[in-house]
Amino acid sequence: MSEDNLKHPVVKTSQKKKRSRNEKRSDKGGSSISTPLVKHNEGEKWYQYTSEERLEGNAKNADISEVEKNAAFLFQRDVDLYNQLERKRGGSEGAWLSTMVVKGTAADKTSAMQVLIQRSPVHTLSHVNALVSIVEKKNIREAYSTLGVLKELFINELLPPTRKLIPLSMRPIADLKRLSAGSQQNMERRLILWKFESDLKGIYGTFVNAIEKLAGGAVENVCAEACRTALDLLAERPEQEQRLLSLLVNKLGHPNHRLASRLIGYLLQLSRRQPNMRPVIVKEIERLVYRKNISCRAQLYAISFLSQLQLRAGEVDLAASLLNIYIGLFRMLVMKQKMDDKMLSVLLAATNRAFPYAKGEVEKLIKEIDTLYKVLHQSNFATALQTLKLLYQLLLNSEGISDRFYAALYRKLLDVEHSSAQERQLFILLVKALKNDSVDQRVIAFIKRLLQVS
After folding, report:
1. How many domains does the chain have?
2. Which domain holds residue 101?
3. Could you tell me the pTM of the whole model?
């Protein structure tokens, strides 16, 4: 397409001043435009009647500033025509909504704008922007009450469920005439929808910025609601998913421990609602736990979350990713002069859960076997028990159960610093180990020891 065709698929900027807003104009087919080109039917979503064309690969548009101006003009003209049409239709409800937007209380304004947006999202983008501005303000109470409204609007009305929004710069401007079959009205309608989607993408980005600020505040309920909003948006729509995921993961390091603990539940909900996102979540958690100056508590919350991830048979890559994180953290903890028993216990328990799904990673863990025995002898009973369980799995899937393991297990039978639940775990491990022991005399010795401590 020539440079001329690129600039003139729509009304030229120079012609704007010559034409009043209410003036009718003819298309090739002779039809006049006195009503909006974009018409929104009840029960229909705007993304169902728009197009999804975008530039492929690394292709880029030439200078599209003229097209952007034309798109902005056409979009505003369509909004004006829609508003004129609404005023002509009149009706008590329409009049009341218009009055509430201007003169109503904060709650009335929000409700009125919500209804108007639902009627025709394309023509009420200014109301979406106004609601986002409320969340951006320092008035925490108004922001808190508006969060839920915007979340429902973005999920149910504004964001496509299966794709991200496309900016105007990524649209195939050069193909506009061909895509519109040469029709001037079709070209203009397509540009209006492209412009709307591009602006909506920017507004949603601003909304995510506002959520991030609220989630980092000092008021616990507001922080929790902001995180809950981010969770629902992330679970339901792909737009801005990386930023929303980073927001949730980073809040595991929030100084408010109750909020950080609540985030574990939010992330688990996300993993259940979007199971295909689990590898991405794990990658984001990995970035968090290896970040410089990360607190031990944040690492503990992160590993606690990972240990509760549900794995399925065949998910070897995901299990391997988890084990790599656990092994790396394990090495870091052991290098410290004073080992954190709580962290080690959670880490070893997590490793025990992931290991059966990634037995191909045995060699990596075998390299740590001497360190595991060191942890076994220096830690409390809970950590030692998790270490024994891991050693059993490792040895069973590699060289076989060793005399060294049985000696360590034998010594732990006399340890009295444990609960009834830990006793059950130790007994289950003991039964498994003795079933695999080919040395009869050792089995007899274990039975005698059990009778002594019973």
Report:
1. 1
2. 62-239
3. 0.84
